[in-house]
Amino acid sequence: MKARKSARRALLAAIACLLCFGMAAPKESVSAEQLLVRVAFDQDTALDGAIAQLADIAKPAPLTFVAERRTGLLIRTSRNGYERLLADPDLRTVRLVRGNVPARQQETPHEFVTYEIRLNASETGAEAVAASELAATPYTASVVGRRTGAAVAPPAREAGPGMLLVRALDTAGEELYRTVVPDPRLVRYEAVDEDGRFTGRTDFYRTEATVRADIPADPAIAALRITAPSKGAAAGVAEVNLQ
After folding, report:
1. Contact 108, 114 (CB under 8 A)
2. Do residues 117 and 237 share a domain?
3. Predicted model pTM
4. What residues does 191 pair with on adjacent strands?
5. Neighbouring C-beta atoms of residue 136, cutoff 10 Å
6. Is residue 20 part of a domain?
7. Which pLDDT score, from 0 to 100, does residue 236 have?
8. Which keywords, in A-to-Z order, does the entry hold (predicted)?
9. Which of 179, 109, 113, 115 has the alpha carbon at shortest distance from 151?
10. Is the dihedral of CA 185, 140, 210, 224 positive or negative?
C-alpha cells in the first residue's frame, strides 16, 4: 500500500513539473546593445542639422538623439554606428559614455607589427607650424622601422583632439583594420601671467615626427592611411605603401 502511494506521489510530481515547463513563458529576445556616445563637431552646427548629419554618417546603423550638453551631443547608436562616427573627420570628439565595444573576432589570431612611420613636412623650413597653418602643410610618410610582436591586440583608444586615426588598406583601398594613436606632431604651449595663472593655450605641430602604430601582420595589407579626426589638424595627413 505504501509503495502504491509513493508511486502515485512521484507520478503527480512528474506531471506537475511537465505542466510547469509547458506553461512557462518563452524568454524574450535581447536586442543588440545600444551605445551612449558623446559627439562634438569641429565647427558650431545647428542642433537639427547636427542630428541629421550624425544620422547620415552612422547609417545604415540606427541613431537616436538623447540630449544636448555643453560638451556636445549625447546620442545612442549601435557598434557599427559608433565606428562610422569615429572614422568621420568632421567630428572633433567621439567619446563612448556607456556601453561595451567588444573586439572584432578574427578567424585566426594575428601577430601585430609595430610600424614606425616618419611624417615629414620639413620643406616648409620651420620646425613647427601653428594649427591654423596645418591644413596647408603637406606631409610625406615613410616607414623607418618595424617590429613584430605577440598576437595581442593593442589597447583601444578613442578618437579626438590630439589623436591620429591609422587605417590599414588592401590593394583596392578597402579598410581591413584601424587603430587610434597619439599625434606625435602636437606641441601645446600654455601661457601664464606674472602670478602663475593660466591665461591661454596655443597648439603647434612639428614638421617632423614619428608615428607608432600596431597593425596586424596581414599580407593583404598594402598601405597605411593616417588621418586626423579633427579638420583643424588637417583631416588627411599622409599615406604610406607597404608593398
Report:
1. no
2. yes
3. 0.54
4. 200
5. 9
6. no
7. 60
8. Signal
9. 109
10. positive
Q: Does residue 34 contact residue 65 with C-beta atoms inside 8 Å? A: no
Instruction: Please state whether 15 falls in left (phi above 0), alpha (psi between -120 and 50) or beta.
Output: alpha
Structural domains of the chain, count: 2
Strand partners, 164: 181
Those residues of the chain that have pLDDT short of 50 are: 2-3, 5, 11-31, 103-109, 231-234
For the record, the C-alpha cell of 92 comes out as 572633433
Q: Does 124 share its domain with 171?
A: yes
Domain C-terminal end among 98, 124, 152: 98
Same domain, 80 and 123: no
Q: Between 47-58 and 79-87, two packed helices, what is the crossing angle to 10 degrees?
A: 110
Per DSSP, the residues of 221-235 read --EEEEE-SSGGG-S
Please provide the distance, in angstroms rounded to a whole number, between the alpha carbons at the two ends of the chain: 88
Report the CATH number at residue 92. 3.30.70
Q: Is residue 135 part of a domain?
A: yes
Cα 113 from Cα 205, distance rounded (Å) = 26
- Taking the CB of residue 231, how many other CB atoms lie within 10 A of it? 17
Query: So what's the pLDDT on residue 117?
Result: 93
Residue type for 199, please?
T
Of 44, 68, 98, the residue that ends a domain is: 98
Residue with cell 506531471: 15
- Distance CA(54)–CA(88), nearest Å, equals 10
How high is the pLDDT of residue 221?
92
Identify the domain containing residue 131 by its residue range.
112-241
